[in-house]
Each structure stands twice: as structure tokens, then as C-alpha cells.
Design brief:
The complex is a heterodimer of chains A (248) and B (251). With 248 residues, chain A is an alpha/beta fold. Chain A has two domains: 3-70 and 147-242, Rossmann fold (3-Layer(aba) Sandwich), CATH 3.40.50; 81-145. Chain A is built from seven helices and nine strands, in the order βββαββαααβαβαββα. In chain A, helix 2 (86-96) crosses helix 3 and helix 3 (101-114) packs across helix 4. The longest helix of chain A is centred in the last third of the chain and has 18 residues, at 160-177. The radius of gyration of chain A is 18 Å and the shape is globular. Chain B has 251 residues and is mainly alpha-helical. Chain B has helices spanning 4-24, 34-79, 81-96, 99-111, 115-140, 144-152, 157-195, 203-212, 216-249. Classes of the chains: A alpha/beta (248), B mainly alpha (251). The interface between A and B is medium-sized, with 26 and 20 residues.
């Protein structure tokens, strides 16, 4: 497998607040989906920003094989620019990288169609529902065909039905493009559903308590949530979160 | 009902005023009755309208000048925190200095031969700060996550400014211009008072002229026109702000 990004003995201190993260080790390979689960303050968002290169570690080393323009982030809020149409928002990463406007817009329209937003190209973010806005944000992340896709609680603001359909759609898109994916969440079931490996983090300072591998194809079959294997895996993750069991 | 309630209150107050003036036989130079003010309005209508246009047009020219200057300076300041640290105390000092106190200086510098210029200058000074601080706040009011995205995709400084910071500044800029329009009229009126010689024949001059002759009804008539001017300007600016914000948000 090809290494896409790695954290080696990484620690982060915030001035005045002491240790926030570390030491933490994590490797990401192409096509791998890793979920980071843990309560707030466990450093999962910090780990994400380190992997994105948006923040530097105080100690330790961050390896990023995916260069600029090959990393994409989806935040908890859609974070679309309200003054731009959906298509212009999606085209933005390409245009910032110097792709000619026409070509960028064409690719954006294509990306919007892939996330199920064909016909919404001209809509402004204020006219999109929460789920549609998140789909547009996803299209913007995928339009550059990233090797590393970082998802920071992307479904947190959505209702249950929307988040389930969106979860399946994300998995289908990831199966097509096979980037390395980090999926941050505080929802155990969601983590097990989305990831091939669930990494459990604990706070004060943020550390990795252990990891649980999830069996099954990337695109989950119907009824996957009700299988015994799914429930056992979720329970193993919950036990790790509660601090009752060592790493698997 | 929402429109009726304030109108009813105004009618009630005017009625009480009229009644009090007649019953107590208040001298007209002290407090004219609403009917006398109405008569003064009806009689002086063309001149008052002309003066109102004079005040409004100078205020708007001042507003336009202030807008150019304030936006330019805000942009310059926002590019470098050191410049901001240098400019801010001076800006605040000038802002808290009462406008009336700056008036004579403006008259000396700009207005001895051209009193009109002093009025425009003072209107611009009054309008400058809301636009400046609005522009500065707006240029910094960038969604932090959107800023991170621009970092992630390696946006250049020019791209950041043109595609992120300027569009983000639009709501605060509109708010600043709305406040500034009202203040520009205040600045113009103050300057007309200070200039005082009749060289600038705006609404303030009508008030000065009438009060010097103890024609109190005409003072009130000019005040009424000034108040209406302020209300209409505020309403127009609010409408423009709402429309432009709706366009900015796409609905």
C-alpha cells in the first residue's frame, strides 16, 4: 500500500493551555478510511489540522505524501461562500490553483452531478438545504481528486435520515476515487459504519486509546447496521472509549 | 395598525399643541401653533425645497468622497497590522472630537472663498468613520474555516483579498454607508451653521435666517423639512442595504 500521510510521535502544546495532543502515531494508506472517535477535547480536530498541514506540531513529525492541492477538508459546517453560486464554490479550489475558469466550471458541474446536485449549479448556499449544502461542500472537496480527504464531523449538523443517505453517498464516492480518508466523529455507530479502522482517542491530553478494525466492504450492504458483527465492533469501540479495554 | 399608531400619536400631539397655543395665547415668536407652521410651510415651499436639495446634494457629495477615502484607507490599513496600530489612535481621536469644533477650521481651510467646499468637507469628515470602521471590520470578518480552505489550496495574497476578504466585507460596508449617510447630513448642517454667512443656502441657513428675524414658524418649517429629509434618506439607505444584501446572499 502507498503511504499518504503519517503522524509520528506528534505532540501539540497550546500556549497557556498546556498539552493538547500527544504523543500520537497514525498512518494513512491510499484507499483506507480511518475514523477518529472520542469526546470533545480529545484532539481529533487538532490531528486533522496537522494532517491537512494547517497546523504544525510542537514535537514529532508529520509526513505528508499528498502535496498542496491533493488534500481536501470538509468541515462541520458546509463553509460555502454565500456570495457565490454552488458551481462557483465548487470550482474555487481549481481556480485558486490556476485552472482556467471555463474548465474549472465544467469540472465543478460534473462534481455537483456526482453528489446528486445536478441542476443546483446556479443556486446560492442560502437556497440550499443543510444536506444539499453539505453535498456541495463534498463536491468542492472531491473536485480536485484529492489523495487525502479529511472529514471533520461533516454530518454533525444534519438530521438522522440525511446523515444516513449522505454516509452511503460518501462511501460510494470514496470507493470510486480511493483517497485516504480521515473521518472525525463523536458518534460510535457512524464511525463503525464509515471506516475500515476506528481509532479511539481520549482527552487530557489527546491520546490514542486503541484501534478497532471493521470487517466488510467499503460500500456497506443493506442492513449492515443490524448485523451481529457491526454491533460487536461498536461495543468494542464503546469499551475502548470508556477506557475498559486495551488496544485490539 | 403599525402605520396608524404613530400617525395617531402625532395627530394627538399636534392637536394638543394647537389647543394649548390658542388657549394660553402663547406669542408666536416663542412657540407658533402647528397651523402657523403649516402656513409657513405652504408659503415657503419652493425655497425650502431648493434649500433641502442644497443640503442633501452637498451631503451626498461629502458621502461619496468619504466613501472613496475611507474604503481606500481601510484597505491599506488591513494589509498591514503595523499600519493599523499606527492609524487607529489617530482615527479614534478625530472621531471623538465634536464635529462642531472642527467646523471653523474647515471654513478657514476650505471655505473662505468657497463656503460650499467647507460644507462638503465637514459632511465628508462626519461620514468618514462609520465607513472606515465598517470596511475595516468587514475586511477582517472572514469565516475562519473559509480562510483555512484558502490556506489549504495555497491561495495567493491577491486571491485572498479579491475572492475572500472583499466579498466578506460587503455586509459591514453596507451598514457603514447607511449610518454614514445620516451623519453626512448632520455634518452638512453643522457646516452651514458654522459658515453662517449665507454663502451656503441650505436648510441650516434657512433656520439661522428665520431665527435671527424671530420668525419662529419659519424655523419650525425648515426643521420639519430637515426631519423629513433625514427620515427619507434613512429609509432609502435601509432599502438599498436590504436589496444589496439580498443580492449578496443570492435571495
Amino acid at each position: 500500500m502507498t503511504l499518504v500521510a503519517a503522524l509520528s510521535a506528534v505532540e501539540v502544546d497550546y500556549p497557556g493551555r498546556g498539552a493538547a495532543l500527544g504523543p500520537v502515531d497514525l498512518t494513512l494508506e491510499a484507499g483506507e478510511i480511518v475514523a477518529l472517535v472520542g469526546p470533545s477535547g480529545c484532539g481529533k480536530s487538532t490531528a486533522l489540522r496537522l494532517l491537512a498541514g494547517l497546523e504544525a506540531p510542537t514535537r514529532g513529525r508529520v509526513t505528508r505524501a499528498a502535496g498542496r492541492g491533493e488534500t481536501a477538508v470538509v468541515f462541520q459546517a458546509p463553509t460555502l461562500a454565500p456570495w457565490m453560486s454552488a458551481a462557483a464554490n465548487v470550482a474555487l479550489p481549481l481556480e485558486l490553483a490556476g485552472t482556467p475558469r471555463r474548465q474549472a466550471r465544467d469540472q465543478a458541474v460534473e462534481a455537483l452531478a456526482k453528489v446528486g446536485l445536478a441542476g443546483a449549479e446556479a443556486a446560492r448556499p442560502a437556497q440550499l438545504s443543510g444536506g444539499m449544502a453539505m453535498r456541495a461542500a463534498l463536491a468542492r472537496a472531491l473536485v480536485t481528486r484529492p489523495r487525502l480527504l479529511l472529514l471533520d464531523e461533516p454530518f454533525a449538523a444534519l438530521d438522522e435520515i440525511t446523515r444516513r443517505t449522505l454516509a452511503d453517498d460518501v462511501l460510494a464516492l470514496v470507493a470510486q476515487l480511493s483517497p485516504a480518508v480521515v473521518f472525525v466523529t463523536h458518534n460510535v455507530e457512524e464511525a463503525v459504519y464509515m471506516a475500515g479502522k476506528v481509532v479511539v482517542m481520549t482527552p487530557g491530553p489527546g491520546r490514542i486509546a486503541g484501534a478497532v478494525n471493521v470487517q466488510g466492504p467499503t460500500i456497506r450492504p443493506p442492513g449492515f447496521r443490524t448485523t451481529a458483527a457491526f454491533r460487536e465492533t461498536a461495543e468494542a469501540v464503546s469499551r475502548l472509549l470508556a477506557g475498559r479495554e486495551a488496544a485490539a | 395598525m403599525k402605520l396608524l399608531a404613530p400617525l395617531a400619536l402625532i395627530a394627538l400631539l399636534l392637536g394638543a399643541w394647537e389647543l394649548a397655543c390658542r388657549l394660553l395665547a402663547v406669542p408666536t415668536y416663542l412657540l407658533p401653533a402647528p397651523s402657523a407652521i403649516g402656513a409657513a410651510l405652504a408659503q415657503g415651499w419652493p425655497l425650502l425645497l431648493d434649500s433641502a436639495w442644497g443640503t442633501l446634494s452637498t451631503a451626498l457629495i461629502g458621502l461619496a468622497g468619504a466613501s472613496l477615502l475611507a474604503c481606500g484607507l481601510a484597505l491599506l490599513v488591513s494589509l498591514n497590522p503595523l499600519i493599523e496600530d499606527a492609524v487607529r489612535p489617530a482615527a479614534v481621536t478625530l472621531q471623538v472630537t465634536p464635529l462642531v469644533a472642527i467646523g471653523p477650521l474647515m471654513t478657514i481651510w476650505a471655505g473662505i472663498d468657497h463656503p460650499q467646499r467647507a460644507v462638503v468637507a465637514l459632511a465628508a469628515v462626519a461620514a468618514f468613520f462609520p465607513i472606515f470602521s465598517g470596511a475595516l471590520t468587514g475586511l477582517k470578518a472572514v469565516d475562519p474555516d473559509l480562510g483555512r480552505l484558502f490556506d489549504l489550496y495555497g491561495a495567493s495574497r491577491v486571491q485572498r483579498l479579491w475572492r475572500l476578504r472583499l466579498p466578506s466585507a460587503v455586509p459591514a460596508l453596507l451598514e457603514g454607508h447607511k449610518v454614514a449617510a445620516g451623519l453626512a447630513v448632520v455634518g452638512a448642517v453643522v457646516a452651514e451653521f458654522v459658515a453662517g454667512s449665507g454663502g451656503v443656502q441650505g436648510l441650516a441657513w434657512r433656520i439661522l435666517e428665520a431665527s435671527n428675524r424671530l420668525q419662529t414658524a419659519r424655523v419650525f418649517a425648515a426643521l420639519v423639512v430637515l426631519a423629513i429629509l433625514g427620515v427619507v434618506l434613512h429609509a432609502l439607505m435601509s432599502l438599498a442595504e436590504r436589496r444589496l444584501l439580498a443580492w449578496w446572499r443570492g435571495r
